[in-house]
Automatic annotation (TrEMBL):
Its main location: membrane. Coiled coil: none annotated. It comes from Hucho hucho (huchen). The lineage of its organism: Eukaryota, Metazoa, Chordata, Craniata, Vertebrata. This is Potassium inwardly rectifying channel subfamily J member 16. Keywords: Ion channel, Ion transport, Membrane, Potassium, Potassium transport, Transmembrane, Transmembrane helix, Transport, Voltage-gated channel.
Length: 382
């Protein structure tokens, strides 16, 4: 039987059995360029500038820190500021001899030890009213220190609130509610092989518009040990999406596509990552977000399609997310798109397109003959 006529005709839910180590040596694992959650397994060594770049952009550095580290830094900023200003109040009281002579007019009422100075510093930075311990007009230095602490308190509160809000509204958190299908499929659509994957928004306040993008990342290891990475963009049909319901993103396997010559057998031997992303603006916050993931050759299911998960009701569209990752077998040629085009008989459209250059050349030839005949008539007339 001819290989180009080999098709599958089973209509049932299937379980994909292709592993990540398929087509490789036993015990040899393939390192993905990008993980499923969109992170890249990259470790930097001897980065230029070291900590200077991170300190120059301290706001972004604090936003990217983990919650436990950020909370520890915020707690230390408050406690250290209280200790610093309590030390200043204690020194002022010591110089003014408020610790020894209780009959003199003190700089700060009832600050006779370091503990009382710490309590006064904490109440100054966290409240605006005083009770048992209060500042007097006897020491100008103490008044200046209180003013500086009040300004420092406003600055610390602004930074803490700003970073907390920015971290809570981080784009990576919103990206977790916009998901891609766990696999991609290859099937025939409108007489051509297409690579398809799904994307959906799991929130009720849906994204109104976004832009999808796909890129084929192919790392190559040379015999000398050098590693080079090439990037190729894939053409996507309907790149701009309205994600009210789950959408299918389609890439047509046609001439010019980097996957044009790959078939179901050669696909397992390839080494590439299909990095897909969806960039959108959140309708609730107005912040730009991006969700991304990657598909390896082991994640591409040949001859399958996604199950229908959208149904039309009387008043609503019903979406069953239990079928979001489910696929079924469909009739699909088990050859590459290039081999399928070679064995496909020419269509009327292709014949017309191939004859267009001949028609143009014949028209040019007729025009040239007309010009020559006109020149001959003019010469005869002269």
């Amino acid at each position: 039987m001819d290989q180009q006529q080999c098709i599958i005709d089973t209509h049932h839910i299937t379980t994909h059995t292709m592993g990540r180590d398929l087509g490789r040596g036993k015990g040899e694992k393939r390192l993905c360029y990008m993980r499923k959650d969109g992170s890249c397994p990259v470790v930097f060594h001897h980065a230029p500038g070291q900590w200077s770049f991170f300190l120059a952009d301290i706001f972004t550095t604090l936003v990217e820190l983990r919650w436990r580290v950020m909370l520890l830094i915020f707690c230390l900023s408050y406690i250290l500021s209280w200790l610093f200003f309590s030390l200043l109040y204690f020194l002022i009281a010591y110089v003014h001899k408020d610790l020894e002579d209780h009959d003199t007019a003190p700089c700060v009422e009832n600050v006779r030890s370091f503990t009382s100075a710490f309590l006064y510093s904490m109440s100054t930075q966290t409240t605006i009213g005083y009770g048992f311990r209060v500042m007097t007009e006897n020491c100008m230095v103490a008044i200046v220190v209180v003013t500086i602490q009040a300004l420092m308190s406003c600055f610390i509160n602004t930074v803490v609130i700003g970073i907390t809000v920015a971290k809570m509204a981080c784009a990576s958190k919103r990206a977790q509610t916009v998901g891609f299908s766990s696999c991609a499929v290859v099937n025939a659509r409108d007489g051509a092989l297409c690579l398809v994957w799904r994307i959906a928004d799991f929130r009720r306040n849906h994204i109104l518009e976004g832009t999808a993008r796909a890129q084929l990342v192919r790392p190559t290891k040379h015999p000398s040990g050098r590693i080079s990475v090439t990037y190729q963009d894939l053409d996507i049909q309907s790149r701009h999406l309205i994600l009210a319901t789950p959408a299918s993103i389609v890439h047509k396997l046609e001439p010019g596509s980097p996957l044009y010559s790959l078939g179901p057998d050669s696909l397992t031997e390839e080494n590439f990552d299909l990095v897909v992303s969806f960039t959108y603006t959140g309708d609730s916050t107005g912040i730009l977000h991006q969700t991304r993931t990657s598909y390896t050759p082991a994640d591409i299911r040949w001859g399958q399609r996604f199950q229908d998960m959208v149904q039309v009701g009387r008043r609503h569209y019903k979406v069953d997310y239990a079928l979001f990752h489910q696929t079924t077998w469909v009739q699909t040629p088990m050859v590459s798109a290039q081999e399928g085009d070679r064995g496909r008989p020419p269509t009327t459209e292709s014949i017309v397109q191939s004859q267009q250059p001949l028609v143009r050349s014949s028209r040019k030839f007729r025009r040239s003959l007309a010009d020559v005949s006109e020149e001959v008539v003019q010469e005869a007339w002269l």
